[in-house]
Write a structure and sequence with these properties.
The chain is an alpha/beta fold and 418 residues long. It contains 14 helices and 24 strands. The strands form six sheets. The chain has a four-stranded mixed sheet with strand order 22-23-1-24. A four-stranded mixed sheet has the order 2-15-17-16, with helices on one face. Strands 4-5-3-14 form a four-stranded mixed sheet. The longest helix has 13 residues. The relative contact order is 0.16. It binds ligand EPZ. The site of ligand EPZ has 24 residues, from helix 1, helix 5, helix 6 and helix 12.
Length: 418
């Protein structure tokens, strides 16, 4: 296994480009199962999760061809509509093949994804939604068994906003008979990107980005071409890397409006942030205030930026209260930050962070999940002495060459074998 060795790096300065969005690429790649033929996707990041998605698409009969950041997917009728445990356990988002397989082929057998470090990650809302479209759903021996000779549109109210549940339902409803209305739909930018691609394939999806999405089912979809939106979580992570080191970092090829909640909190904390249509810049700042956050569905503060923001707050003047309202166990990074000397008191869903600038001490720490691994790298940039982040396979799932991007800004960071 690889590890990341991070030295105190001083102020990071310069420009860095954001890669394509992991959480947009995954549903859009699975949506290709809705239309046989050749799909072309641009700005697809090189990540472990993309490799896992291609592995599952290959098992489902599709050919995948990488050409730089372009990925071509040639879909044909799968011999078996099954997603096995050994692929699904590597990537929970594999459940997103359920809706497309059910809609296009009337059946799907998908291994239950199981939980992960940040929570139990149930899929009940996905299964209820498919049932609402007329599918027969069973869970047996660790598998979801789904059958639906024909899906029929219906109105579904999600008891709580679910990104994956909204995506699965949008894809299934695209080929259902009649109209589907999704109420309390997730509003993330990745939902809008998926709707845009579904419509390019000939679907009739409207309202994406709002809490009410309407899908008029159509007979057939055809393959199309799409440019994946930038990764807003990577953009936010890079912005915090500039902020925490007191440098001036311009994050390019991003969509600032997708991280407005982070930008607002950083401004409230004392950072000067400027932006244009495709970039956001944090300016040098030597002292900033502790500012509370509560994670929430978009456009609220993204749960995927909570850990990175917590690291920033360990260096603030004063105290901040961080409330994680989306996942029940997304404070695994707290004990690792504490190993570096951070002053954090975690409760069930709330962590109180008392800032002490410049007092983190480098040490070996362990990545527990994707975003936690990023927060530990950020901490290593400002800790005194060397920080080693172990198990960074978590990082490789969702960040494309993070060490190269940070090195280009002046970070002292290198990858090594554990
Ligand atoms: C997506 O996960 C993202 N993953 C996550 O990013 C992100 O943290 C999450 O949305 C929230 O924004 C991808 O897009 C691939 P949810 P998802 O369904 O779809 C509960 C990362 O770091 N829930 O919106 O699984 C669930 O337990 C990853 O890139 C149910 O109870 O999230 C959670 O508490 C981590 N039943 C809440 O809803 C269900 O059937 C939100 O989950 C589904 C979800």
């Amino acid at each position: 296994m690889d590890k990341m060795i991070v030295q105190p790096s001083g102020a990071l300065n310069g420009s860095v480009k954001t890669s394509g969005a992991k959480n947009s690429s995954l549903p859009i790649l699975f949506s290709s199962l809705l239309a046989e033929g050749e799909h072309t996707f641009h700005n697809v990041p090189h990540l472990k999760d993309i490799e896992s998605t291609c592995e599952l698409l290959n098992l489902l009969g599709a050919e995948t061809l990488r050409e730089g950041t372009t990925l071509k997917v040639k879909v044909k009728r799968p011999e078996r509509m099954q997603a096995d445990y050994d692929v699904v356990r590597k990537m929970r988002a594999s459940i997103l093949c359920l809706g497309p397989l059910l809609a296009q082929y009337g059946e799907a057998v998908v291994s239950l994804p199981g939980g992960c470090a940040i929570g139990t990650r149930p899929i009940n809302l996905h299964l209820d939604a498919m049932e609402s479209l007329g599918a027969q759903m069973k869970v047996e021996k660790g598998f979801v068994l789904a059958k639906a000779p024909k899906l029929v549109g219906s109105t579904i109210l999600f008891e709580n906003a679910t990104v994956g549940g909204t995506e699965n339902l949008m894809m299934a409803a695209s080929l259902a008979e009649g109209t589907t209305i999704i109420e309390n739909a997730a509003k993330e930018p990745e939902i809008v990107d998926l709707a845009n691609y579904l419509n390019k394939m000939g679907a009739k999806v409207s309202g994406a980005g709002t809490s009410i999405i309407t899908i008029e089912g159509v007979e057939k979809l055809k393959p199309a071409e799409h440019l994946i939106i930038p990764d807003r979580i990577e953009a936010g992570t890079l912005l915090i890397a500039g902020a925490i080191t007191g440098g001036e970092v311009r994050v390019e090829d991003c969509m600032p409006e997708h991280i407005e909640s982070l930008i607002q909190k950083m401004k409230e904390s004392g950072f000067k942030i400027t932006k244009d249509k495709t970039s956001v810049t944090v300016h040098p700042c030597q002292s900033w205030q502790g500012v509370d956050i509560t994670t929430a569905p978009h456009p609220g503060f993204a749960t995927d930026l909570q850990a990175q923001y917590m690291t920033l707050m360990t260096q603030a003047e004063g105290t901040s209260v961080i409330t994680e309202s989306i996942f029940e166990n997304r404070f695994m990074h707290v004990q690792e930050l504490t190993r570096l000397g951070a002053d954090i008191t975690p409760k069930t869903r709330v962590a109180v962070v008392r800032g002490h600038k410049g007092e983190l001490q480098g040490a070996p720490v362990m990545a527990t999940d994707l975003r936690a691994s990023a927060c530990l790298v950020l901490a290593g940039l400002v800790a005194q002495g060397e920080t080693t982040v172990n198990r960074i396979y978590h990082l490789d799932r969702g960040y494309e060459k993070l060490e190269d991007k940070l090195t280009s800004l002046g970070a002292k960071i290198k990858r090594a074998k554990e």
